[in-house]
Recover the amino acids of this structure.
């Protein structure tokens, strides 16, 4: 036990470890090993499956034993009564450590007291993003729709079409998801700008890219872009339209 300044305040040394043999838990837990990786600045759902036995149907709380550097896992997941599986949401930072990680899920339930067990090891691949994007600054007016083009730099080829959504649009601005392939040099989003769209300099836009690999999604979060929305210039109420055949004074 260490105290302040990492000073040991209590220690115990032993050359033997105690091992107890107990009755098996009425459930086991297994990770469904991902067939596709998780990318930096990405997200993934880790599926776990339980086998319940001996009439047990209580809730089983599940969590990662540890998170690889740069990866965060949700700790409130559980397999509910009547169910046999759950997902643990995973997210990664842009600097998450790229490599194959051996992961374990811990499961705990109340069986006349807390009973804890774990899964076997599974492999989670953490990779660099498959693509990068360049977001240009754009300017428009309330009620004036525009096309917003984002350049694409490919880093890892992928098969098929990937879905791209522009997220973080300001209030009053909408768009539709687009598709890209490994040969796409840009993706163009039609921005529909309402007459009452919020005026200002908005810097929260980013793209969510979903690539399917081995029938599983590889999620990317890439950004950010800037959109300036201005109010239209006021109409001069004193301006006069010349009468037909005449001249204005």
């Amino acid at each position: 036990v260490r105290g302040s300044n990492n000073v040991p305040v209590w220690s115990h040394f032993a050359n033997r470890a105690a091992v107890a043999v107990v009755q098996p838990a009425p459930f086991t837990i297994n990770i469904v090993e991902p067939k596709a990786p998780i990318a930096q600045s990405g997200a993934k759902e880790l599926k776990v499956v339980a086998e319940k036995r001996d009439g047990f149907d209580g809730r089983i709380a599940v969590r990662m034993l540890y998170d690889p550097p740069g990866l965060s896992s949700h700790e409130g997941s559980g397999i509910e009564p009547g169910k046999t599986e759950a997902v643990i949401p995973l997210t990664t930072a842009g600097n998450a450590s790229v490599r194959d990680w051996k992961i374990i899920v811990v499961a705990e339930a109340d069986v006349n007291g807390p009973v804890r067990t774990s899964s076997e090891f599974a492999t989670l691949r953490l990779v660099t993003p498959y693509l990068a994007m360049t977001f240009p600054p754009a300017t428009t007016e309330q009620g004036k729709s525009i096309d917003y083009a984002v350049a694409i730099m490919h880093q890892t080829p992928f098969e098929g079409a990937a879905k791209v959504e522009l997220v973080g649009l300001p209030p009053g601005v909408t768009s539709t998801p687009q598709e890209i392939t490994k040969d796409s040099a840009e993706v163009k989003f039609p921005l529909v700008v309402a007459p009452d769209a919020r005026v200002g300099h908005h810097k929260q836009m980013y793209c969510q890219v979903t690539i399917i690999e081995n029938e599983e999604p590889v999620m990317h979060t890439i950004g950010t872009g800037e959109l300036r929305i201005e109010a239209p210039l006021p109409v001069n109420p004193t301006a006069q339209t010349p009468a037909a055949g005449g001249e204005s004074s």
About this structure: The chain has a mean pLDDT of 93.
